[in-house]
Design brief:
mainly alpha
Length: 162
């Protein structure tokens, strides 16, 4: 049982830590460095680099979510059952659903808008529909990640409490 709990916590920490590092370190650093060195072209390149990084991270999130669900199920079957195991599984399932939606729908729409806008929607005029759509998708992407961070923190709290 200890091994299952260890794998569960490890998957949770990888997912949560990855989201925090992406948002707090990778994104701002990538944009700061590349914009400082190459201006507008740097911003476009930073968007491409971070978009690719985020897309790759989604596969880590999918794997972590699957591992979390599998270990919760195994702990339930093998016993003793984790406290609020059904609620935990529901939170993980919601997080995984959000990650799948973000990776397979939102990121693809962002890519499509960028291609349609010639690479950098921020170059477009304020009222341009493509820029408005890109900005809305960017906000949605951040909110989805914040939802998953909140869910992971709740799950981590339960583990720390036990």
């Amino acid at each position: 049982m200890l091994a299952l709990r260890y794998v569960y916590v490890l998957a949770l920490v990888v997912w949560l830590g990855g989201m925090l590092i992406l948002g707090a370190v990778v994104a701002p650093t990538t944009f700061e460095v590349l914009e400082a060195r190459a201006g507008t072209q740097g911003r476009e390149l930073a968007g491409a680099v971070f978009g690719s990084t985020l897309a790759r991270f989604h596969y880590i999130a999918y794997g972590a979510g699957a591992v979390l669900l599998l270990t919760l199920g195994a702990m339930r079957v093998l016993g003793p059952r984790p406290a609020h195991g059904g609620v935990r599984a529901a939170i993980v399932a919601a997080m995984l659903g959000v990650a799948l939606y973000s990776g397979f729908v939102v990121l693809r729409e962002i890519d499509a808008v960028q291609v349609d806008a010639g690479g950098l929607p921020s170059r477009l005029p304020e009222g341009d529909a493509r820029r408005v759509r890109f900005d809305a998708l960017h906000v949605l992407s951040m909110r989805l990640m914040m939802f998953n961070i909140a869910g992971a923190l709740v799950l981590l709290y339960w583990e720390a409490r036990e």
